[in-house]
Amino acid sequence: MTKLFLKKLNILKQHGIENKIPNISYEIGMFLNMIIKNKNIKNVLEIGTANGYSTIWMAEALKATGGMITTFEISIPSYKEAQENFKKFKLNKYIDSIFEDFLKEDKILKNKNIKKFDLIFIDGQKNKTLDFFNKAKKLLKDGGIIIVDDVIKFKNKMSEFYKYIEKQNKFYYIILPIDIDDGIMMIINKKLHK
Question: Which of 63, 88, 91, 140 has the fewest CB within 10 Å, making it most exposed?
Fold first, then answer.
């Protein structure tokens, strides 16, 4: 990761702040980038592209591992802006950007011969987090990781998800307060990590 890459990312982040785009923090971006490289992750699913800031963090790591990210967005302006940003960062070939509602989509993933994902990053509408999780967990590879963003700041909007995750017995989870005002939840399958 070069200084120029980080400088361009900082400019994109500032643009997001000025335009009230709900991007992840620098710290979470770095965390996602490092976990992909450290675990040699090849196949990532992202739910919620926005302007592509988080996608770019992960795609830069996937360039190093020879992997690919499939990312879903339902806002036309966000989707179009993300496409331009992917071109600016020259990471297009590591990104499969889909303009579609992830919850309604089934054919695209089947047609792309994607069986399972190593890492799934959920950062879509907070009140749909449980729906995203229930669909995403079926697409998770054995030993894979699900990461949910904004679990501290928007806990009230994720109340159904919290009720589910606290009562279930199939997954381990931990909340990591990575940045100043929020954090992520990491989730792994219990049966694979005893």
Answer: 88
